[in-house]
Structures are given as C-alpha cells and as structure tokens.
Model the fold of this input.
Amino acid sequence: MIAAVSIVWPASNASPDNRVERDDDFVDVMTVVPDAVLDLRYATTDNFMHEKVYEHAVCKLRRKVASKLAIAAKRLREQDRRLILWDCYRPASAQKVLWKHNPDARYVANPKIGSVHSRGAAVDIGIVDKRGKPVSLPTPYDATSRESWRDRALVGDKGREARTLDAAMTEAGFVGIRTEWWHYDFKAAGAFPLADEPL
Done:
C-alpha cells in the first residue's frame, strides 16, 4: 500500500530562502528597475555639500514603493525614456549631515521630524533617453533656486520632459513636492517607520 504524500507549495510571496516577502522590506531598486541609470550623488562628492555621505552607491526603497516605481518605469519605457536615480533611501543619520549643511526646510527635512527618504518611501529622480543619454530637464539636481519649484519647472518647453516624468510618477502613486521638481513621495509613506540602516 502506498502512503499518501501531502505536498505543501511555498507561498507565492515567499523568497527563495522561504522567507515571506513584506511590503516594508528594503529592496535594491536595480533588481526591480534594472534599466534605470544609477547616479547616487551622496555616494560621491558631486553634490551640494561636496562631501561623500553614503559608503555605497545603492538605491534602496521599501518593497511596495519599489514596485510602484517599476510601474512608472514601464510607462516611461513606452515613451523611450528611462529613470535616472539620484537619491533613494537615506539613513536618518545622513539626514543630519544634509541639515547641517543646509538647514532650510524648503529643501532639506529637519531631522527632528525626519525625511520621507529615511522611511524608504521617497526618490529623487529624473529621466534620460532610451540610450541613457541626458535630456533637457528644468534645472540641475539639488538646485536650491526658485526655478526648481514645480510651478516654474513643469511649464513651457523647458518643463516638457519633467511633465513626462510627473505624469508617470503620479499614475504610479507618487506625489511631488512644491520646491523640488525631482522629488517624489510615495502616497502612503507614513505607513513606514524612519530607519537608520547604513548603506
């Protein structure tokens, strides 16, 4: 007599090591949007502080946020555009460094409140063409000028590419902020806690 064998299939949301994947896990965005151009400025000295803040150039976001970013990337791909990633998850300790250099809440979140970047639920991004070459964007990244504000940056011919980015990000569930055309928060960012895991 042959004994019955019970087969238990792994859950569809389980990772290869059988650990259940959670929406608030940190994931490397390049595994989700592999054609994105990675240009993490705070892992270099090419930023407004001229100081390297991150040890490693890795773009991490909460899993749910990264999945929404992939939706935006898909829409942009259909328009021969790709994402360029300037900043993603930012450890809370790194936020203090930025605030020390520019304690202006219009452009840098006060670390006493915390940045949405430190929740793993914000991105600083632009777009490039399908070959990864620059397109015309309203201002350089991290420009602290009135021209970087959305009401000026997203208008006219100079705002055409930024509007393309904005439409894709809005459709995917992100919202922009008033003073930086490149910054987008995930709409449900408050669901994730502040973190200080090093990069």
Remarks:
- Residues 1-14 have pLDDT under 50 and may be disordered.
- The chain is about 20% helix and 15% strand.
- The chain has one domain: 26-191.
- Residues 63-77 form the longest helix (15 residues).
